[in-house]
Amino acid sequence: MHSFAPEIMLITILSLVVLSDALASRLKIPSVFLLLLGSYLIYTYFKAAVPIDLTLHFDTIILFCIPLIFMGDALHLHFSDLKKHGWSIFYLAVVAVALSITAGASLYYFDVFAGLSLGAYVSLFAINMATDAVSVQSVLSRFKGISHDIKVLIEGESLGNDATAVIAFFFIGLPWMMSGEIDPMHATTEALRVFAVSIGMGLALGYGFYMLMKLFSDKRGELFAFIIEGYAAYVLGEEMHVSGILTLITAIIATKAWIDMDIAAACSLDEKRKRGFFAKLRLENVCATTNERLEYIYEMAKEFGYIAAVMIFFVLAEMVDLEKLWYYRNEILIMFGVTTLIRALSMAKFAFFGKTIDSIKPVGKEGWFILTFSGMKGALSIILVHMIPASYEYKALFESVTIGVVVLSIFVYGTTLWVYFTFLKKEGEKKLF
What we know:
433 residues, mainly alpha, Na+/H+ antiporter like fold, 18 helices, globular, disordered C terminus, transport, transmembrane helix, transmembrane, ion transport
C-alpha cells in the first residue's frame, strides 16, 4: 500500500491558503487570522488532513521554510527606499531591538519570572521581540491609507529585526542561559564578527547572482535564481557558523538593489554616469531583468512565503497545549504587555523625536501607532523557541509564553489595526510623512 501523506499534506496547505484568502476578501479581514485559526482547527479536529508528523521533522521544515519566508519581503525593498530610509531602518532593526532586549532583560532584577537567570531573560526577550514578515504583510495588505514610506519602514524592520534577534539569541542569550555565565567582551566581539561576516558573505553572493542573472532573460529562470540564492545564502551562513538569516537577507537585498540601479540607469539620460567605473564593473548596460518580471517574481515569492508560514502554523498547532497556556497565563500576559510597552516606547522616536535627527524621518502620532501595532510575532519566534535544548528545565515556560505572545500579537495587534483602518481612519488621510 502506497502512502500518499505528502500529497495529502500539500492539498491541505494549498486548500487552507486558497480558502483563507477567499474568506478574508469577503470578510475584509487579514488572511493570517484565518490561516492561524484554520491550522489549529484542522490539526486538532481533522488530523487525517495532516498525516505527516511535522514536529518530528521540524529541523528539516525550518531549513525549507526560512528562505521562503524572508525572500518576498527582501525582494520588495527598492534601492531608492533603502537610500531614503536607511538610517531609520537601521534604528528599527538594530538599535531599537538591542535596547528592547536590554530593557526586557532588566526585569530580571524585579524577579518577574521566578527562577530564570539573566541569560534566560535575554533569550526570552530576543525570541519575543522578533517580528514576522508574513504576518505583518498579511495584515497590512488589507488596509488602505498606509503611506509607502511607512510600509518601507515596516518591511525593513521585519527583516533586519529578525536578523538582530537571531544573533542576540544564538550568540549571546542561549550560551549565557545554558552555561550560566558569559564573557561580555567575547560576546560583543562575537556578535560584531557575525554581523560583519554575514553581511560580507551576503554582498558577495548577491553580486555573484546579480551577474549570473544577466546571462538569461526569462521570469521563471530569474525567480528560480532568487530561490536558489536564498537557500544557498542561508545554508552557507549556517555552515560558516554565522547568521544564515542575515546572509540571506543581505544577498537578496543586494541583488535587488543592483538590479534597481540598472533599471534606473537604463531610464537615465546621464551619459557620464553610464560610463562610470562602477557602472562598467556591473555591466550596467546588460539588464538582469525588468520591472514587469520583478513584479511577477515578487508575487510568486510572496505566495511561497504564505505556504511556508502555513507549515510553521501547523507545527504551532502541534505545540499548543491549552492546559499549559492556562497554567502560564499570567506570564503570557506579562510578556505580551511588556513587549508591547517596550515596542511603543522604541517607536516613539519616530513620532516625537524624529525631527532632532535629519537622517531619521518623523512619522507623526498616527505613524507611531501603526509602527507599534505592526509588530506581529510568528514563525521565527516559534523556530527560535524550538531550538532550546529539551533538557532545559524552563523550556515549557518558554514555549507557552512564546506561543501565547505569538497568538495574542497576531489577533490583538491585527484587530486593533483592522478596527482603526475600517472604522476610524478618514478616507482623505493618505500621507503620513
